[in-house]
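Progress against Task 2.4 (sequence-to-structure conversion) is shown through the following example record, which the project officer requested during the mid-term review.
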Amino acid sequence: MEAQAQSWQGRLPFFYGWVIVVIAFMMSFITAGVFWATSVIAVPMREDLGWSLSAIYIGITTRGLVGAVGMFILGRFADLRNGARTLAVVSGGLSAMTLLAVSQIESHWQFLLLYGVLGGMTTAGTGFLIMSAVVPRWFFRKRGRAVAMATMGSAAAAFILPPFMALIFESVGWRGTWVVLAALTAIFTVLPALLVWRQPEDIGLHQDGEETPVQARSTAAVQVVRNYTLSEAVHSPVLWILVAAVAAASLSPNGLPVSLVPMYIEKGHSTQVAALGFSIYGLFSMLARFFWGFLAERYHIRVVIIGIGLFTGLALPLLIFMDGNFALVYSALAGFGIGGFIGTQQLVWPAYFGRSHLGAIVGVGRPFATVVNAAGPLLMAQSFDRTNSYSFGLWCMGLSWILCAAFISLARPARQAVPQGEAARAQETASRPEAG
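Structure tokens generated for the chain above:
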């Protein structure tokens, strides 16, 4: 234990948990960035290869569905002492190789296999499990801001990558753009993953960088809760209510952003203006993390998600009624709502079930949301291909947020935090290496 207390991480002038946050930011940046970049590359790919928009979006959907299966299988792995690090290194390397191979495709089945199936297997290890099962372990009172900052990578990707990918495409074409994405993936995942640790106790530290373990002092927003085992969580009705709530809200985070550029072009805007709309979405998605993350440290996550659900449910169908440059305001509204959910959804699981078996619990609960998330792009593509309009897809997404708010309102948290003695025992248990 003394050796752990003298680790180099403990001698840093700042809490090592913030290094974990930066790593999660980088991984979420590139994991989401591959999705966003695909929406930009889709148009020249479609023209060059003679595919439909739905054919390319089926690849995005396949990637998400396979990722859901991967998360279900690999969730327990994140509870092992070195599991998250190993998973991220292997997944990052495999992801980079598949993207490099995509640059050479000629047939649709090759795209589905490389981008959808093999690439989808890597998404759990290059971002989702780090954000959901590692970052929340490192923080208690500062968990809201930490998770919000970690998830800002996806918003930054939406803000930065579309115009960057458009610039790269003009220089090297769509095949060269995939090569650039492969290189960025290796840089943003494999190298940072070597610095990942499961939780502060593994290197002699405590949550939030405090000198002693967190005790049973709590607020309405953050309470020390009993650490549920996977079996206990699965048999709790609250888990499945939360699964339904998070899954309902997950229809939009991929489906709407990847459709923003085509939707603005369909409304008569130029490609440059459409790309600007995407960047506005990314900017407000980043700003939303601070706003909703601030609220999540002062109110219980259930209240925050209800607020996000109602706001976003009313905002998403508005593009149907917006025209001209005023339609760009829609990007701000959508980014503020969807970005807030992405920044706070990781807080749901530790707030209700503790952190000792967080990877396993997320591995069971999160895949349902990932499946719905994967269906979003296909819903929007089919809405346009069949009706020559995105209205049906937008109405469906608005309704999904109202359902999210309704479901999570039923998931009432425990009335009291665990007693101080049990909280201390939970800390002791959390500090032990997990067997999986």
